[in-house]
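Troubleshooting log. The previous run stalled partway through. Resubmitting the same two chains, unchanged.
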Amino acid sequence: MTNLFGNVAPLLLAAEGGTPWTRGLLDTVIAIGIVLMSVGVLLCMIRLLKGPTLVDRGLAADTISIQIAGLVLLLTIRFESLVVFDVVLVVGILGFASTLAFAQYLGRRGSAA
Amino acid sequence: MELAPMVLAADDATAGVRDLLATISLAGGLFFMFVGAVGVVRLPDAYQRIHAASKCTTLGLAGMLIAAILHVWTLDIAGKAIMAIVFTFVASPIGSHLLAKAAHHCKIEQWPGTLSDELAQDKADPNCSVSDDEIGVPEGPQRLVAQDSGPVHVGAA
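Second attempt completed without errors. Output:
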């Protein structure tokens, strides 16, 4: 636990203090959110596999990357650590660039069958 | 590898209120994220799927970033998150617009219940100066030579 996120254990111990009611509610919502976004990744994977056109496949891949960024953001909120937060910015910029490149490719290709 | 703990939660008087607001914002962001994922699967048309995915990117990620700001409440995460929100709100509609334009250029058929296709009408209209393709260049690199096509008239001449 200490090699990836630094000292996680004192953060977890510090998270036990404070106001327990709102903290417990936030932790519950985070736990629900992990399930929801994992289901969302699976749904986008369905569209990625069976999408009839290339536009659907590229769109599903972009949505999967956004959902992964959301999962990283949930990790940031839970552990209150800035170590993994830069992933959100990097994934956002890469998603924008890849969408642009994909649109250029499709327009140059002329057909998306 | 020993990493210093970068931030700690500020246990001040506003921590409870901030956590409550962060919970509400996080729930909204998660709602839009999940609705976007469901819409990507369930909607009948590539254009409508682009619409759903764009909601997922802008509103869902913005809600979750606001929740991160409110919960962690330090200046560095606030700066990075505001930067990410501004970038996402600028970049995601541009990307969705270009993807929809490429889809229309590739002549992906619409859902039969769609009311109109105004871009196809404008392309068929000789008085309208919507260019056929600004994203795809089928002719190749000679389009890169500057074409002096006179003043560009927008809309019906």
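Takeaways: The longest helix of chain B spans residues 75-105. Residues 15-105 of chain B form one domain.
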